[in-house]
Design a protein that fits this description.
96 residues; mainly alpha; Histone, subunit A; 39% helix; flat
Amino acid sequence: MARVTIETVDHVARLAHLSLTDEERQTFARQLDEVLAYAESIQALDTRDVEPMSHAGGSEVLRDDTPLPELPREQALAAAPDADGGLYRVPRVIGG
């Protein structure tokens, strides 16, 4: 039996102020049901012998954060496609 119904999708869509077609409602109900089924299968795993951890990549070795001399302005601007007056020039993106 499906855990996510069309009514559930309608309720969530109303909360999110979304308007969905009938096809989208059916698709989302099926997809959400599949996500919940997968989550249930993960919860069913026996993890008694798995040590708790705070991060998935717990064995990472990070380098020391050592300050270096600053990059000269000319060198920093050398790769800029458009520089003017010691600054990067970029296309206007707001209020253009």
